[in-house]
Amino acid sequence: MEGHSAMIFVNGELRALQAVKALLPDYDLWIAADGGLRHTHRLGIVPHVLIGDLDSVTTEQVAEQRRLGVEILQYPKEKDETDLELALDLALQRGCRRISLVGALGGRLDHTLGNLFLLNRPELAGVDVRLCDGQEVVWLVGRHTLIDGEAGEQVSLIPFSDEVSGVRTAGMKYPLKSETLYRWSTRGISNELLLQQAEVWTDTGTLLCIHSLNTKPSE
C-alpha cells in the first residue's frame, strides 16, 4: 500500500492513547515496527504493514496479522538498522512526505536518542517527520516552523547543531529576537505559547522543537 502520510508505531512509550487515536484518520499508511504492534492493539486498529526482525512479537501474533491481511516484512535479527529505520525507509519508498513516529520516545535511552538523531537523516530533507507519544511532539526546525496548540502549552527549542543563529519567535511568552542558541546552553528551554499558534525562524543551524501538549495520560 502506498500513501502520502504514514504513522509508524514504535515499541516505546505511548502516554496519551486517546490523543493519538484522534490523529489516526489523518494518515493513510499505518506501519508497526516490530514491538510497536502492541500500540496498534491498544488503539484497536490493524496496521497495513508489520516490519522488523520481529523479535518483540510472538509467532502467534505474526500469524494473526497475516490472517488479517497485514503485509509482513521480516528481516534478520543481526542487521545494521533498527526496526524504526527500516519502517522509515519503507514510508519513504512508498512516497510519504508526512510521517509521525508514535511511541518513539521513552523506554530505552539509547533507542530514544537514536530515534531523535534519525530526524537528521539526509533522506528526510523536505519531509515532515515528527515523534509523538500523545503528550509531546518533537521535530527539527530548519529556517521556519509553525507551532499549533493551545495557550499555556510549553515549547522548548534545543540546538541540534553546535549553534543556531538568528533565532526569532512570535506568539511565545519569552520572545527570542535574532539570538544565537548554543547546544551547551539551556536558553531555549521552557518557553510558553501565548496563542493557538506560534512561529520560529532561524538563519543558520537546526533546532529541535519539543512541544508539550495539554493532554492527559490515558489508557
Kindly describe this structure.
This protein is an alpha/beta fold and 219 residues long. The chain folds into two domains: 5-134, Rossmann fold (3-Layer(aba) Sandwich), CATH 3.40.50; 141-212, Sandwich (Jelly Rolls), CATH 2.60.120.320. It has five helices and 14 strands. It has helices at residues 17-21, 37-43, 59-67, 83-93, 109-118, and strands at 5-9, 29-33, 49-52, 71-74, 98-102, 128-132, 136-141, 144-148, 154-159, 163-170, 179-182, 191-192, 197-201, 207-212. It has a ten-stranded mixed beta sheet, sandwiched between helices. The chain has a four-stranded antiparallel beta sheet with strand order 8-13-10-11, with no helix packed on it. Helix 3 (59-67) links the parallel strand 3 and strand 4. The protein is globular.
Essential attributes:
ten-stranded mixed β-sheet, Rossmann fold, alpha/beta, Jelly Rolls, four-stranded antiparallel β-sheet, 14 strands, about 220 residues, 2 domains, single chain
